[in-house]
Automatic annotation (TrEMBL):
SUPFAM superfamilies: Activating enzymes of the ubiquitin-like proteins (SSF69572). In the N-terminal section; belongs to the HesA/MoeB/ThiF family. UBA4 subfamily. Its cofactor is Zn(2+). The lineage of its organism: Eukaryota, Fungi, Dikarya, Basidiomycota, Agaricomycotina. This is Rhodanese domain-containing protein. Residues 326-418 form the Rhodanese domain.
Amino acid sequence: METTLALDEYRRYGRQMILDGFGLEGGFRSQLKLKRASVIVVGAGGLGCPALQYLAASGIGKIGIIDHDVVELSNLQRQVLHNEQTLDMPKAQSAALALKRLPFLPLWIETRQDAECIYRLDSNANVEIITQALAPDNAIVLLSPYDIILDCTDNPPTRYLLSDTAVALGKPLVSGAAQKFEGQLCIYNFGPTGPCYRCLFPKPPAPEHAGTCEETGILGAVTGIIGNLQALETIKIIIGLHDGTPSLLLFSALGIPPFRTIKLRSRKPTCPACGEEGQKLGEISNIDYVQFCGGAAPDWEKSGLVEGSPDRRISVKDLKMTMDDNTVKKRIIDVRSATEFGICHLPDSTNVPLKILVSDPHAYLPDAETPTYIVCRLGNDSQIAADALQSVCPEKFTVKDVIGGLRAWSKHVDVNFPVY
Ligand SMILES: Nc1ncnc2c1ncn2[C@@H]1O[C@H](COP(=O)(O)OP(=O)(O)OP(=O)(O)O)[C@@H](O)[C@H]1O
Ligand SMILES: [Zn+2]
């Protein structure tokens, strides 16, 4: 265990060590606590990146990063540790390089450890990278070496898995969430009576309310605020400055005031994860979290490409042929929001946002001679809209949804069509 600070660490961390109240036992001891602490950040995305940079800069001794995904261009708007040079690189690795300010991963520091997916970044072994998804069968093993867990992920199955694992390991879980202009922050399973995620949310959100940033949009600075708060709360826990009162912080960039805090009750005795009286969950490795949260999100484009009911669906290539044929009548309805329609749209398409169309499908009935093709971004909403129209129009009318939506259009028909 570390008992001293190196000489250069006094200068490096001096600005925080001299703070009045930087740990009850004084700056030196608090800095040592940070140096001895280990923290694991699950998800090196919008929340994980800002959290990681402040955790690393504060002098935390060991940081783990778990993420199975690779860096994509659409991440750079908010995932500030990644850059154009690290596109396609595993996010955990890209984030670790940024923390160490290294341009690439030199071979001499890439040492494989016990699991195939784990790398230690340098001889001080202070950043550990795990390029594998956190799953029920590895969560206990991967998280147990760390003192504090940060949930910087974006999906309900992983949130429940992280909470249950934190309870099983008796570790605090600093959890962040952000979507659109809004964010949330909560520390679960903290102290002897702090509630867990299941205490607060015994039931998962309906799948339609669990959209990803890709579906709903996100302002980068919002994830920056929540991710930074996660780092701050983690540092407070380590140096003993957190009073442990359970609360949920709600942030809205457009709200007045933008921050609100809700005091939470303590642990629920009947909670199946952390309660004394609850019906026990059982082994984490045996729990099907995806099933619990309503099943996996379908891959709409793929499912659409399967031979299905050709009379109700049309491929993007067939749509293109129809559009090029001036002798046939057609109508293309784009059911995305007006904002998205403004970003890009197919020539001669009309914008009728999904909500408006399904609230009054009769208003958008085609005529017998004009086939209607319905398009959206990914080919999901267009199916709902097509169903709504088909249900109110006579059999012989043609209403088809465009398989895979505009994403498929840019992949298979026009590579210059914007993807967002
Ligand atoms: N079970 C998991 N194990 C490891 N990493 C996870 C797990 N679940 C989610 N993540 C990671 O959490 C991060 C969440 O960040 P964020 O939502 O900003 O990124 P994203 O998924 O790239 O976003 P987008 O929705 O724009 O594609 C992602 O990098 C994702 O790979
Ligand atoms: Zn609980």
